[in-house]
Design a protein that fits this description.
Structural class: alpha+beta
Radius of gyration: 21 Å
CATH class of the largest domain: Mainly Alpha
Order of helices and strands: EHHHEHHEEHHEEHEEEEHHHH
CATH superfamily of the largest domain: Transferase(Phosphotransferase) domain 1
Number of helices: 12
Length: 335
């Protein structure tokens, strides 16, 4: 096995034409389902231990001893599965995770991590390598989930990406304070600006794909649908498979891929307001052009960020924030 965390713009450029030629998955871009038992030893040699039956038992015993059963019914199935295992050293996969994900522990300090398997020549691994390369990962607007290692298994055409395990939710608690709420949204917008600046499109901007470390930091994950458009002038696509699809695709029309992200980002902002139980008129104002039926009339990500910061500055002088019935929010919020 080998590792690579260096990636540059030229490497992405070599795949740019294939990025726009088709949205049909081919062999290298399909989701992989590795035999984790086969690879556990090599991953451990790099300092990461895949969760075993003993790890899972220890986790539940540490975190749920004395907790009322009715509060943890959803979690106890995992504990029951672990207890049913006869070999404490056997791997114990979280049944709630997709087949290409596995929970693990960093051996030197016990920090919990997540390991994601990708095809070694997939678009996703190319983009992850690029976003985690030293030349770009230090950019304060790059809110990619921190990558701890990339472990290549060329004999099986698989790369294992080891990343920090953050909260599976954008907000650590609901409701959150307004300052935290706005800072979370700002980091989401910043990452889209960062990606577009580097001619990358995420294509699955949604609440599910932004996490928090509970320390005021927010990060984007899941680049399975992402594409590089480096060196491609005026790109257009006919459809996508993201969570939030713009209306032009429903009409069978093509769209600027960057404006697909803008539509999804607008939906994210509105859904975040609903989730946190905030109705902030300034944010409703911000999202209106982002949700234009005409993609050509949607603003750029950089313009969205500039307007967001202007609105936040004005709100600090005299914010108008209040809870609002669902019916008062724009139609896209309630879908």
């Amino acid at each position: 096995m080998s590792s690579s965390s260096e990636w540059d713009r030229d490497s992405l450029s070599s795949n740019a034409s294939s990025s726009v030629s088709s949205f049909d998955d081919d062999e290298v871009n399909a989701r992989v389902a590795p035999d984790w038992t086969t690879h556990r030893h090599f991953i451990e040699l790099r300092g990461f231990r895949l969760d075993t039956v003993r790890d899972v038992k220890d986790y539940y015993q540490r975190h749920y001893v004395g907790v009322e059963c009715q509060r943890v019914d959803g979690y106890l199935s995992g504990y029951s599965r672990a207890c049913a295992g006869r070999d404490d050293n056997a791997l114990c996969k979280d049944a709630g995770l997709r087949e290409n994900l596995f929970r693990a522990t960093r051996c030197r300090d016990g920090v919990k991590v997540m390991v994601k398997a990708m095809h070694i020549r997939s678009r996703e691994i190319n983009i992850v390598r690029y976003l985690s390369a030293p030349s770009v990962r230090c950019d304060p607007m790059n809110h990619c989930i921190p990558i701890l290692d990339i472990i290549d298994a060329p004999q099986d055409d698989i790369s294992f990406v080891v990343m920090e395990e953050w909260s599976p939710h954008l907000f650590a608690e609901i409701p959150c304070c307004r300052r935290q709420f706005l800072r979370a949204l700002e980091q989401c917008i910043e990452h889209v600006v960062f990606m577009h600046r580097h001619q990358l499109v995420h294509f699955d901007i949604s609440l599910h794909n932004f996490l928090t470390d509970y320390k005021g930091n927010y990060a984007c994950i899941d680049y399975e649908l992402s594409r590089s458009y480096n060196g491609i002038p005026d790109p257009h696509i006919c459809f996508s498979r993201g969570t939030e699809l713009p209306p032009e695709f429903e009409r069978g029309q093509s769209s600027d891929p960057y404006k697909v992200d803008i539509w999804a980002l607008g939906i994210l902002i509105l859904r975040a307001c609903k989730l946190a139980d905030y109705h902030i008129p300034e944010l409703v104002h911000l999202t209106r052009p982002m949700l234009s039926d005409n993609p050509d009339k949607r603003p750029s990500a950089a313009s969205v960020l500039k307007e967001f910061r202007r609105l936040v500055s004005s709100m600090e002088k005299g914010p108008a924030v209040y809870a609002s019935p669902r019916s008062e929010l724009p139609r896209a919020t309630c879908q």
